[in-house]
Amino acid sequence: MGKWRYGVILDAGSSGTRVHIYKWLNSAKARAKADEKELHGLPVLKTDKDWTKKIHPGVSTFGDTPELVGPDHLQPLFEHALDVIPKSQVENTPIFLLATAGMRLLPAPKRKALLEEICAYARENTRFQLPDCDLHIQVIPGETEGLYGWIAANYLLGGFDAPKEHDHGKGHHTYGFLDMGGASAQIAFSPNATEAKKHANDLTLLRMRTIDGKPLEYPVFVTTWLGFGMHEARRRYVEALRNSTSPDTMELPDPCLPRGLNVTTEGKHITKGSDEWKGLQPHLLGTGLFTECLAQTYPLLDKDAPCPDAPCLLHGVHVPAIDFDVNHFVGVSEYWHTTHEIFEEGHKDRAYDFHTYQERVKGFCTQDWSDIEDAIESKKWGKKVNEETAQEVCFKASWLIRMLHDGIGVPRVGIEHLNTDHNGTAELIDNAKEKGYLDPFQAVNEIHDTEVSWTLGKMVLYASSQIPPADKALAVGFGSNGAGIPPDFQYAGGKFDPKIDNLTDAADDDDDDWHDHLFSDSPRRIPGFLMFVVIVAVILFLLCGRERRTTLIAKAKRSLGFNPTGPKRRKVFTGKLFGLSSQPLYERVLEDAEAGEFELADADSENEHSDSSDGTRVGRTSGWATPRLNAAFDRSPGYFDEDALGVGGLVPPSVVGNAMERGGLLARTDSRERLAAPVRSRAGSPTRRSPVLKSVREFSD
């Protein structure tokens, strides 16, 4: 098959579905090209920004009309994938559709019917690899989404492939992962050795496979907080505002909105004539008191909830103690957008600084809404910042600060003391700090120009499952933290297939190593190489010109012992192809004649003229053979037989006369003087006198 393997994954979120496409070298090719260090690493995946495409709304909106999810939603995403992936690779390309928060909210019967329709449509309308619907088309829990995100972050940062270069101390070399969407928030990290031993039963064992086929295992803690995503947190916050005032109150003061801004409880502008405008429904009035906003968002953490399995961080959810000396977190999605959409200036390449961030947010959120509108109009914060972004950012910033520092417990850099002694060279520490990856928290969107997406983590896991195992390595996937394959083990979805991952078959349109294969020492390459040489020789022979071709053939005949002046064979297809004739003497005279010494009859563009009854074309040429005057020699078999020749090989006059009568030879000449005129042979060609022309001159005289 091909040099490259491809994978397609659709992230089916609550607001839309995005298709991601990745490619990687097939396992045999990767192993052949890898150096010693790369052999101990994971497959190298590649993607491109143009390979992604998102459409709205989410698949969950088709809960009542599952029959429409294919043509109205999935088809353009499938077409986009087919435009990227070579046709020869489609059948070997796995496709996954993994749904998250939006689909989790659907009733079980609707969710099941929709997933079945998605799988059926994909199988009927594409040739993608889809062997198991339950594995490839499914709703994944928040914990799985968090684990995939943890894989993606550490894969891009290099925590897996170069552990010594990412030593954070105490033998720890991986990074923690934080994700926050609209409905839920996730955390994933590998605890330090002490906590990992203490909470072994709470951990998930992740098993991958390096290029040399050896297992790569990590115990990871993953959990999710439903209702703690940005949109759900805002909904709970507004509900708390309404419950804290009288039911008759129509104007609810909101410290998390810029001063003077009026919006509905859903965050929409109040339009003239609406119930809010008439005073029939409550609305929110911004007061711009950010300190009070922070105070009112704290109760949303539910820190006082019972903790049946200590320790807990928030909402009574158990989380092993986090050692921030060695556990350094990267945050994606809302963690990135909320810290960078408006407050990006001077912050993009720096680690998160609580003190600086809070001061910037406070300065923004205490402004009058009219001033903010003017700044938006003048593009102060860039083209992407609109009124909707500006009115939401104050609550988002408050919630992010609460989740990070009061919920998860990330130290407040700039205020709280943090032990920053790390093992490793000073140069590595300086370089890492410049990017912020040795600080307790850093918001990221891309690492090495690749988006940190949980879909990448899923595909890394799948790609590693394609590698043939060394010895008796266990399957790739994740499950309960224990030996062997636990009952809840989630397989990566693939396995090594020698028919696909075969180095000798690794020929692809974009294989830029073709020259290495062509001249390799493999005996299987020799016949192909010889055929290649023969084809090149034939092409060069055809391009060298008629004169050189004739000369080369004559030399070849002499070297093989053929008599060029002996009896000639009838012309066959090769004679036409290479410009040769069964009448070389006559043809050479015509070919070498000076311009104007003979004329061809005009050809009718509507018809193909032929001087023979079998339809052979003359008077026209494709460019491969010289134009010929065969009419003068339209003869019966045996014309050049020895019995028909006179002494010295001359043709009897009677024969010539008959030939002239049949073909009208003299009609194609201006005078007998022209026929009798001496003809010069082309340079480099053997000079011969035609016995035919000699007999014509004798007859004329």
From TrEMBL:
Segments crossing the lipid bilayer: 526-545
Region of interest (Disordered), residue spans: 601-622, 667-701
Active site as annotated: E145
GO cellular component: Golgi apparatus; membrane
GO biological process: CTP metabolic process; UDP catabolic process
InterPro entries linked to this entry: GDA1_CD39_NTPase
Pfam families: GDA1_CD39 (PF01150)
Keywords: ATP-binding, Hydrolase, Membrane, Nucleotide-binding, Transmembrane, Transmembrane helix
Positions contributing to ATP binding: G182, A183, S184, A185, Q186
GO MF terms, alphabetically ordered: ATP binding; GDP phosphatase activity; ribonucleoside triphosphate phosphatase activity; UDP phosphatase activity
PANTHER family, alphabetized: ADENOSINE/GUANOSINE DIPHOSPHATASE, NUCLEOSIDE-DIPHOSPHATASE MIG-23
Sequence similarity: Belongs to the GDA1/CD39 NTPase family.
Protein name: Nucleoside diphosphatase
Annotated organism of origin: Patellaria atrata CBS 101060
